[in-house]
Specification:
By secondary structure, the chain is mainly α. It contains 13 helices and no strands. One of its GO terms (cellular component) is lysosomal membrane.
């Protein structure tokens, strides 16, 4: 048996926990309220930084250099629009997308439960620490990724003008089928339906009186602002990965990279790249 609960407190799953929203002293923006609404967007944004995204980023950098950074930018913007719809659904109705789907399409969930049993047990373990601890845990993971990939970006020092051109000019000179496949893969890695289900559920964890239009409108505004910040951070991390691998591997031959590795502190990884003139093939599972 677990430890006794403090008086007046009952055990509840973290998605049933309600985070209270402080009352503002007057109209206008409030940092205290923004902090109270902060959390769901960063929990959601971790899906923009999963291994599939990192794999897509590094392959995109190696295949197309900085030419497809504009695809990353606009895919993230499109993802934000989808997350905004998820926010509005959860805030206005008080139900997440899964509950709405169950109301209209009551399909048994036992299959999905069996498939996700490992994830379920893991998050049940985190459950006893509360929702804010879970949000802080994922915030820590995102911070670590931002610092490590940001450090690599600074060390590699990619051509800044080329990076900016790749972000803001929707054009890919000299691109062909391989670059197109990478662009499609990047969009698919960023815009994911399961994230809409998650986000529409996470926004329900704030104590909002849905009978008052002012509170609903205010919640939508703060959640959108927090999501913009979270996805901007995820965009920067993905940008760092693409730029680092684009600078290091774009149009490089295996022999070139092998020789660079031999003459560096990571010489033990030189064997990954054979001594031939073939173009480097980058994969997250190599090395």
């Amino acid at each position: 048996p677990g430890p006794p609960q403090p008086p007046g407190r009952t055990a509840q799953p973290y998605l049933d926990e309600l985070v209270s929203i402080p009352k503002s002293s007057g109209p206008g923006f409030s940092l205290r309220k923004l902090w109270a609404f902060t959390g769901p967007g960063f929990l959601m944004s971790i899906a923009y930084l999963d291994p599939g995204n990192v794999e897509s980023d590094l392959q995109c950098g190696a295949v197309a250099g900085f030419k497809l950074l504009w695809v990353l930018l606009w895919a993230t913007v499109l993802g934000l629009l989808c997350q905004r719809l998820a926010i509005r659904l959860g805030v206005v109705t008080g139900k997440d997308l899964a509950e709405i789907c169950h109301l209209y399409y009551p399909i048994p969930l036992w299959g999905g439960v069996l498939i996700t049993i490992v994830d379920t047990l893991f998050f049940l373990f985190l459950d006893k620490y509360g929702l804010r601890k879970l949000e802080a845990f994922f915030g820590l993971l995102i911070t670590i990724m931002a610092l490590t990939f940001g450090y690599e970006y600074v060390v590699v020092r990619p051509a800044q003008l080329e990076v900016l051109r790749g972000i803001f000019l929707p054009y890919c000179p000299g691109c062909g089928r391989e670059e197109l496949l990478q662009a499609v893969g990047m969009v698919g890695a960023i815009i994911m339906p399961h994230n809409i289900f998650l986000h529409s559920s996470l926004v329900k964890t704030r104590a909002i009186d849905r009978s008052k239009k002012e509170e609903v409108r205010e919640a939508n505004t703060y959640f959108l602002g927090e999501s913009c910040l979270a996805l901007f951070v995820s965009f920067l991390i993905n940008l760092f990965v693409v730029a680092v691998f684009g600078q290091a591997f774009y149009r490089q031959r295996n022999e070139d990279v092998h020789n660079k590795c031999i003459n560096s502190s990571v010489s033990r990884y030189a064997g990954i790249f054979p001594l031939n003139n073939a173009t480097v093939s980058v994969d997250i599972y190599q090395g």
